[in-house]
Design a protein that fits this description.
single chain; 446 residues; alpha/beta; Rossmann fold; TIM Barrel; six-stranded parallel beta sheet; five-stranded parallel beta sheet
Length: 446
């Protein structure tokens, strides 16, 4: 009897000016991996960003920073067009020789799935595909993820992958793999019911220092700078019981203490989702550390929610403020000035400290001035929480894309590498890094 197909999942290198593991995992790829196992495929996983590779001298205690830590960093030449930035461009992750050695230890796969998160990280994915192709020249390579979804034509023309999958990958990948391998089994889950999905295949990692959580998909809002509606048009979510069961699973089976929520709308309709979830977790009398790197909606914060977040163990809370220029919030409709002030007061009353709560402020928007960013920084500091600069990434297909293309000193439409937020691509040609340095000093002052 022929064995089931062997599928290799690969998380590629990051090529960028800066990168750090802020609870960053290829959750989409690991969800697909779990579904493939559920359907009877044999699955292997290699992580080019592996902080805990046995050959790495960069291993950190995973509990030092809530499971976070630095990647191994290797300076490399920057992509064409970014040579004059004055900044060091690097490969973040294991060395290419290590990847080649790890690949050679595996049986030849029937197909290889590679993901790519940020649109401007594609050079790392392309290098990964080249190395994988050298080792397994006969295996079809499938590229998916956010980059492939937002820039499909660029991916098809330049990636070197045999197939490019766009959008949510659960069903599309199964259909493609059936075409590639001829292997088919009856669906063991309902794509429309998140409660029926298996837990992400975090167990395929070398070490599970923390667990990323995605309790819902999509977002009911449609902010001008955000691609959530493109990536996941429908907003749906798990039941509170399902969320609690998954958290218990990672804690009981892998000793995980730190959990990072990656929902785009964690607090929306809180009475029916996150409030009962937190109440069940609190009633368990267990100890957790939760983090919200994707930011929560400020308008949804009430005294009850603030108290529950504090009681359940939220240690790192990020608010999606974006700007404090409340008279010109045409780019989103998520919060008014009074709502921001009130939400911060609720969090303080619940016992949150300044270093636990940060408000994201977009920097580098088309037409944005240094002074407007500085005003936002001062407003957040005056509120008693921490301002956090979030550099704007122009995203194809969003409402702000055309304005970004028009404002940029780079040809954004020609190459996604120019959307890199580290170079503030929508600032004018006379932009200098001292501007950014002044803003960073303002954030740290006082």
């Amino acid at each position: 009897m022929k064995s089931s197909p062997h599928i290799l999942l690969v998380n590629p290198w990051i090529h960028d000016f800066a990168a750090y593991d802020f609870w960053a995992k290829p959750l989409g790829l690991l969800i697909v991996g779990a579904i493939l196992r559920l359907q009877g495929f044999r699955v292997a996983y290699l992580d080019c960003q592996d902080r805990f590779h046995p050959k790495s001298k960069n291993i950190q205690n995973p509990l030092d920073r809530g499971g976070r830590g630095p990647y191994l960093k290797t300076p490399i030449p920057p992509p064409k067009g970014l040579e004059s930035t004055g900044r060091t461009y690097s490969r973040y992750g294991i060395l290419p020789d290590w990847l080649a050695e790890d690949l050679k230890k595996l049986p030849p796969p029937d197909a290889i799935l590679v993901t790519c998160l940020m649109t401007y990280w594609y050079p790392g994915a392309f290098e990964t595909i080249r190395v994988v192709r050298e080792i397994f020249p006969k295996a079809p390579i499938v590229l998916g993820g956010i980059y492939a979804t937002l820039c499909p034509e660029h991916a098809k023309a330049h990636s070197g992958a045999d197939y490019v999958v766009t959008g949510p990958g659960e069903t599309a990948v199964l259909e493609l793999l059936e075409t590639i391998t001829g292997f088919r089994t009856p669906p063991a889950f309902d794509p429309e019911d998140l409660n029926s999905h298996p837990y992400p295949a975090l167990d395929l990692q070398r070490k599970t220092a923390y667990a990323p959580l995605l309790t819902s998909r999509g977002c009911p809002y449609s902010c001008d700078y955000c691609a959530s509606k493109i990536l996941q048009p429908r907003f749906h979510r798990m039941s509170p019981d399902r969320v609690v069961t998954e958290i218990f699973h990672w804690q009981d089976s892998f000793g995980v203490k730190d959990f990072a929520f990656y929902d785009d709308a964690l607090l929306v309709d809180a009475e029916n989702h996150i409030i009962p979830t937190f109440e069940k977790l609190i009633a368990s009398n267990r100890t957790f550390s939760f983090h919200t790197p994707n930011a929560v909606h400020i308008r949804a914060i009430t005294p009850k929610i603030a108290g529950l977040m504090r009681a359940v163990g939220v240690k790192t809370l990020r608010l999606g403020l974006e700007t404090s220029d409340f008279s010109r919030r045409e780019m989103d409709r998520k919060v008014e000035e009074a709502e921001f002030v009130q939400a911060v007061s609720y969090l303080k009353e619940a016992g949150f400290q300044k270093d636990q709560v940060g408000a994201y402020l977009l920097a580098g928007l088309p037409g944005q001035t240094e002074e407007s960013i500085a005003r936002s920084i001062r407003t957040v500091k005056q509120s008693g929480i921490t301002p956090i600069l979030a550099y704007y990434t122009p995203i194809p297909g969003t409402k702000m894309w055309e304005a970004a293309v028009a404002a940029s000193r780079y040809d954004l439409a020609a190459d996604p590498v120019f959307t890199n937020n580290a170079i503030l691509p929508c600032q004018t040609a006379d932009f200098d890094w001292e501007t950014l340095a002044r803003l960073k000093r303002l954030v740290k002052s006082g």
